[in-house]
Design the sequence.
């Protein structure tokens, strides 16, 4: 079968990348120029399964940001398998076109480069596109919060970028921490008795808070965080059995993380309205 | 060449059933240009069918449309529209591609040159004689100038051909050593070695030096090579002593200095060329004045011309009186 590279003279990139995959990812079964899915109108230069869940596409290219990535971004998200998409380009192109490199990375793609000696270097890690939350999106969501909360949430976001389920679980812990702090503050103010705000029982604390007059204006926020904790606290414990489940899980993690950020903001605002700090 | 009766069919074929034509002289597919085509095909589909021939076992070979076919494969298209022609002979196949492509868009000369030698050999096999430049031009649709330029590239040593090919892979804007560079360099070196054959033995070293000097900007333009030719031709043409020309050329061909072609030209032969030009112009002026005097048409000369002649007269007096 002939190579389906668009440009000529890039065969050395493919060879170097194939060796790298063999070496780093323990010799997985690698497909060259093979259709991934009938519905996907793109044949990546290389694709392989990173593990039972994640498929990696690698496009061999003369430039750091191949146009096919822009054309097929939406279709990749519709594939129902978690896909991490990388470009492999010459090191020289990487050094000479930093503008395109930055765009590529900010759009959620990864990058490998090959130098004159054929050595491959990973320049940007890529997570499956279906779980991707851009840094800009994240920063916009946390903008109104205090510095202390922002620092903690940034930690959760970094964890999310490496492991989305673990990141969501971490975010749930932030929400639980906020509930615990609100409960303690309410006890200090004499609104709740200590038995109504026990550590480790956020659902009970929320239920108790909602029965007191000081929290009557915050019932929506309280209900929101209660449901959120219930739904996402064990996210990282459920291991997907196949690619389709993994796709759904990564997609749900994305929703979960973004939803968590919104719940935190709503809870923070509601607690402040009630006269509490709304912090952790 | 006689016209063949063609049986043509239009069909939708799977891109996987098509193989590229091994005789395609086109070697360079620049990604930027390919991506533009990819976007166009993605939006509008393949508007012009590709052309293939059936190789007899359910597989087809491309005659025309490798770029469209590459894009179709990248876009995972189910089918591409294709005109199926009879299987051509090897020579017909090559000539078809020259006529299809070379007339439609500007190909890189190296692309054309790479298969031109094969065309010449096949033509010789079929007709019993090597085609001359005119025949080659008629058969391939290339101009004679283009054929001459191709032949300069064909005759480049392999090492320099690879150097050029690597350069051609780059986007046009990033190419430093263009085809024009090699063509101009080779033309001038051909002139130099014709006039001064001693340089033939170290031609590759000279090429290396000239390439390096061009890369580093010591030779600033590809047109400088024309002055290199003029240094060599000045030996017989202008009476310049061979050792004077050689001394200048040796300095240009020496990799250890930063001596360029322009400097060598200026030092060795510029005056003599200017003198030659002045002599030609003096002859033309004398002939003109003789005609004016013969026809008694002095009164037709404008004041401006008379003024210029007056200045010239004074300068000539100055010059001739020493």
Sequence:
């Amino acid at each position: 079968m002939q190579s389906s590279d668009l440009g000529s003279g890039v065969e050395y990139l493919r060879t170097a990348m194939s060796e790298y995959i063999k070496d780093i990812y323990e010799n997985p079964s690698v497909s060259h120029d093979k259709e991934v899915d009938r519905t996907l109108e793109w044949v990546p230069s290389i694709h392989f399964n990173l593990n039972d869940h994640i498929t990696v596409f690698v496009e061999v290219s003369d430039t750091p940001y191949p146009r096919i990535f822009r054309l097929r971004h939406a279709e990749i998200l519709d594939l129902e398998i978690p896909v991490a998409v990388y470009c492999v380009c010459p090191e020289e192109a990487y050094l000479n076109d930093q503008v395109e490199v930055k765009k590529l990375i900010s759009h959620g793609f990864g990058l490998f480069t090959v130098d004159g000696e054929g050595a491959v270097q990973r320049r940007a890690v890529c997570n499956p596109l279906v779980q991707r939350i851009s840094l800009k999106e994240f920063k916009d969501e946390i903008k109104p919060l205090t510095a202390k909360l922002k620092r903690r949430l940034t930690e959760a976001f970094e964890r999310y970028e490496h492991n989305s389920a673990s990141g969501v679980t971490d975010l749930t812990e932030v929400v639980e921490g906020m509930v615990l702090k609100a409960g303690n503050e309410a006890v200090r103010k004499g609104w709740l008795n200590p038995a109504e705000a026990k550590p480790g029982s956020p659902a009970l604390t929320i239920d108790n808070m909602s029965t007191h007059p000081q929290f009557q204006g915050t019932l929506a926020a309280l209900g929101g965080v209660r449901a959120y904790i219930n739904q996402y606290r064990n996210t990282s414990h459920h291991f997907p059995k196949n690619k389709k489940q993994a796709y759904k899980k990564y997609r749900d993690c994305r929703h979960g993380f973004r939803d968590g950020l919104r719940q935190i903001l709503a809870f923070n605002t509601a607690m402040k309205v009630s006269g509490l700090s709304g912090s952790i | 060449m006689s016209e063949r009766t063609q049986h043509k069919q239009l069909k939708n074929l799977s891109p996987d059933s098509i193989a590229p034509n091994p005789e395609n002289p086109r070697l360079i597919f620049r990604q930027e240009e390919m991506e533009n085509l990819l976007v166009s095909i993605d939006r509008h589909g393949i508007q012009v069918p590709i052309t293939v021939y059936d190789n007899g076992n359910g597989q087809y070979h491309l005659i025309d449309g490798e770029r469209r076919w590459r894009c179709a494969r990248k876009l995972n298209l189910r089918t591409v529209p294709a005109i199926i022609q009879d299987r051509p002979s090897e020579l017909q196949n090559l000539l078809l591609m020259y006529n299809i492509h070379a007339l439609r868009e500007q190909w890189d000369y190296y692309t054309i040159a790479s298969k031109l030698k094969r065309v010449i050999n096949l033509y010789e096999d079929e007709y019993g004689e090597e085609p001359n430049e005119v025949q080659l031009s008629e058969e391939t649709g290339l101009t004679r100038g283009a054929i001459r330029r191709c032949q300069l590239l064909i005759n480049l040593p392999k090492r320099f051909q690879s150097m050029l090919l690597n350069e051609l892979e780059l986007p046009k804007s990033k190419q430093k050593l263009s085809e024009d560079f090699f063509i101009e360099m080779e033309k001038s070196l051909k002139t130099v070695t014709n006039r001064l054959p001693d340089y033939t033995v170290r031609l590759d070293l000279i090429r290396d030096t000239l390439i390096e000097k061009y890369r580093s900007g010591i030779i600033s333009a590809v047109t400088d090579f024309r002055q290199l030719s003029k240094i060599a031709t000045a030996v017989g043409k202008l009476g310049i002593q061979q050792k004077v020309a050689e001394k200048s050329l040796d300095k240009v061909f020496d990799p250890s200095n930063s001596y360029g072609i322009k400097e060598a030209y200026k030092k060795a032969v510029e005056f003599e060329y200017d003198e030659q030009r002045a002599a030609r112009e003096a002859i033309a002026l004398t002939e003109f004045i003789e005609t004016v005097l013969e026809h008694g048409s002095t009164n037709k000369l404008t004041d401006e011309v008379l003024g210029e002649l007056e200045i010239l007269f004074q300068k000539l007096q100055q010059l001739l009186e020493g």
Remarks:
- The mean pLDDT of chain A is 91.
